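User: Predict the complex.
Assistant: Input components as received:
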Amino acid sequence: MNSFSDSDIIEGMLSEDDRLVSESLKRLYKTCGQMITQIVCTNGGNLHDAEDLVQEVLLTFRSQLLSGKFVHQENVRLSTYIYRMAMNQWITILSRRNADTRRIAEFFVRTEVTDPDPHMVFLDSEETNTFRAVFSKLSPIEQELLRQYYDSKEPLEKIAAQLNMKSTDAAKMMKHRTMLKLRGLIKKYLGTI
Amino acid sequence: MKKPGTPEDITDWIDQYLSDAMSCDERRHFEAAVLEDNGLAGQLEEQAVARNILHEVFTEEKLRNQIRILQRQERRWTIYRRVLKYAGAACVIAVSCLSFLLTSLPVFPDSENDFTVIRGADESVMRPDRRAVFDRFFAGQAHIAEGQYAAAVGDFETVLENQDLRSYFREAAEWHLVVAYLKSGSLSKADQLYRQFNECQDCEYQVSKVNRWKIWLQIQYSRALS
């Protein structure tokens, strides 16, 4: 387990194999979770904030990897990069919370932050958040139907039974309507279609 | 395979194509239909984008859940380590206290120099038989301090054979005899004498609760081992 290098983690995260992605994420969490928690807890946050930030940072890092925005350099450790991401994001959160400006200034001085625009680092995260926001516009039953059909690959017969629908045709009709609705939402909020 | 007639079947048809669930012939027919029908091509594109977004959302959900599980495990592990640390410290303290209570001798009032035992008695005019009793008492104390418990038992038993002892002096000798019995291995005698004192309400020779408890514990511990 300890033989996992930064390159192995990156390779695993980019893999199509869910097991490898999961193992790499676990490795990354073991490497960086404690460090991010410390950044938050020593700078005005609590354990709950730290846990949220760990989730955001690790998932954003994955998005950056997938979109090619992160380029691995042999002389820069992954943990260093993630440390910077976590710091920038925590500063953003503190600013958003209208936190004590003196405390933020002290934090800047202490950590010698030099990134010109910390918000840029989180563009990928915001994109993912938008996807999630669009998806959340669907009703819970619609979300569940799409989750079971497209993610769990369950047949429509089983989905109809699980969601208490009258028939398979009703499930098929609902799937069609939900996809239409989703396409409409994507057009409205993302404008990419 | 012909293009399906109803919109829901068309959505399903596109899903089959995007999920790679078609045979070669079906794929060929589908792709031909897409080339002929701009509406179908548009729907294919939209559905592909929607499915990619869904895939991204579901993957993110799963990874987030995985991180939450790791965080939960870590929280549990932190609590477990903390409990273990405190339990360990408590055990060390308990063992230290217990070993102190089990090995150290009880401390009696003025045990270093028991002047109160002979209070009121003028040593210069003391009768030789009374002086002998006092000397025996101090000899017993010295034997206990030196670890000669059998000799101490003899000393205190001799002291207690005397009938006209003040109650304070008698009780002092009896407490010392309990310890001498205990240390010399006469556990039942020690226990019997200890019980007699434990029920005593108006004793003059005051032995603290901690020391009483220490004697009781040592008797029980020695009995359990024997």
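Chain B has two domains: 7-103, 111-225.
Let me know if you want any component modeled separately.
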